[in-house]
Amino acid sequence: MAVLALLAALTACAGDPAPPPAATPASPAPPTPTAPPSDEIGPHGPAVPEEPVALARTVEAAQATIADPARPPAEVAAAARTAQVAYEELAFHPDRLAPVLAALPPGPADTTNKIVTAGRDLLGMARGVPGDELPAWRVVEPLPPDRLRTLYAEAQDRFGVPWHVLAAVNLVETRMGRIASNSEAGARGPMQFMPSTWASYGLGGDIDDPHDAILGAANYLRANGGATDAGLDRALKRYNNDVRYVRAVRAYAGLMAVDERAFLGFHAWEVYFRTTSGRVHLPVGYDEPAAIRAVDFLARTSPR
Fold first, then answer.
1. Contacts of 44-48 spanning 24+ positions with Cβ under 8 A
2. What span, in angstroms and rounded, lies between the C-alpha atoms of 217 and 227?
């Protein structure tokens, strides 16, 4: 899998090294949150404003919805998808970040800065520039968040690797299992293991099964020091030999450690692929055995 879409799954995995490798402005009074985001995704994802204050209000409203336990899951997921696109736009256009941060209160600004910076790190790992084709991927429905949370907890209890670290790896590698495809190097499963590494750390399980893959990842990380905070950076760098990967995983994990509802937001993130036709949403059910031109896919799937 080639990483041309920001915040999509990374090709590198455990045992498959990748290539070698501001202060937040003061915030004015919080803007009034906007209306809840729509649950419409569309061929390019939810629309977000370009104007900095309007974009800040959109992000703040989305973050508030995700953080509110009284909001129904559908609203939380829609808010998360809107925030995802906003973060992506800021990562692709870093010159737009400072005025957005300046229009946000300190808490939302800090969250936004961490997620956008993580996105910039992952974007920096992508090889090449956007082309006109979409990948030969299969996109599936991930396990529900409560089920995944149980699997992460089981792995934490058994191997000592924090659940939020496992969730962050799962997010970065395959968008928590949405991308059900092998990497170009042959890495497999929701935690993207090379078969040779899996043979040593997979505990005899199924590399494509989320339960077994999460346990295998925890086993691998623990074996490399990931059960302690002091050893976690080293373990993550063994998972993917790039400091940008380590920083990104740490950023996502840290947000989930502070507020577990952040996990619900990340779980709702969709799969996008950046092309010369713009950002293209690859929905559940996308299943292409070979690369396909983005314009052909959009012509086939866009509303008429």
1. 44/278, 44/279, 44/280, 44/281, 45/81, 45/84, 45/85, 45/270, 45/272, 45/279, 45/281, 46/78, 46/81, 46/82, 46/85, 47/85, 48/82, 48/85, 48/86, 48/89
2. 12
The CA distance from 228 to 294, in Å, is 44
Task: Using the predicted structure, report yes or no on whether residue 15 has a pLDDT greater than 50.
Answer: no
Interacting residues of 146 by C-beta distance below 8 A, sequence separation 6+ = none
Contact call for residues 35 and 78 (beta carbons, < 8 A): no
Cα separation of 241 and 6, whole Å?
Answer: 19
Residue 98 has pLDDT above 70, yes or no: yes
Q: What is the pLDDT of residue 52?
A: 98
Compute, in degrees rounded to 10, the torsion defined by CA atoms 47, 50, 56, 61.
-20
Residue range 184-188: mean pLDDT, rounded: 92
Q: For the chain, give the percent of residues with pLDDT over 90.
A: 82
User: pTM of this prediction?
Assistant: 0.88
Instruction: Report the alpha-carbon distance of residue 134 to residue 245 in Å, rounded.
Output: 23
CA distance 249 to 253: 6
3-state secondary structure of 82: helix
Residue 179 main-chain phi, psi, to 5 deg: -90, 105
Q: Report whether pLDDT(26) > 70.
A: no
281 Cβ contact partners less than 8 Å away, ≥ 6 residues apart: 41, 42, 43, 44, 45, 270, 271, 272
Q: Which residues, including other chains, have CB under 8 Å from residue 300's CB and lie 6 or more apart? A: none
Q: Which residues of 123-158 are buried (b: 16+ CB within 10 A; e: fewer)?
A: bebbeeebbebbbebbbbebbebeebbebbebbbee
Q: Per-residue confidence at 123, pLDDT binned at 50, 70, 90?
A: very high
Hey, which residues does 193 pair with through a beta bridge? 14, 188
